[in-house]
Amino acid sequence: MRRLHTQPNLHKLIISRLRTWHDNTEEVNFTVERDIATAIAHQTVIGWKAFLEGIIFDDILQIQTDYYKELQRRSTGLSWATKLSNFMWEMIHTLWMERNEQLHKTERIHELHGKQQLLQAIRLEHEIGRGTLPVHMNGYFNVTLERLLRRSIQDQIAWFYAVRRCREMTGCPQLILDEFTTNIPLRKWVGLPI
Question: Of 104, 129, 150, which residue sits at a domain end?
């Protein structure tokens, strides 16, 4: 907002109110001109999320236009709001992209999907062992549990899918009734049919 030559008290109050809104804390009051205080109060009613989305109370635009006139600049409050909105949209988009990258390119997505439930189910399946599963499943149980739990999440999902799917398809009496039996999102996550 400094680069846009925002009116100093308006700038200070906007930043303060955005922090208050974001952190859900009490407002810090400043001594400012009455028109600025009134405009900020009206914006608070409209909402600060709305402000970030480009919905800015008209009186704020007028205050900024008046300030530009004092500075003898040709800009208007509307052009200020447009540039500010573009900047905020770019910032929100950047934050969203970073969040998605953290979510989808790290282990975080697996933690949210059910990694703990998967590890618990793998432990149970491994403990039961092959049982009455077909002989071709022996290889799945030759790997130690410790080694299996050190593998990548994709390898763990593949192991679990093969063992659980085989138990379900063969009507195995050792079929475990757990979250992967009834929880549709968990079943989808590991590729089990619904």
Answer: 104
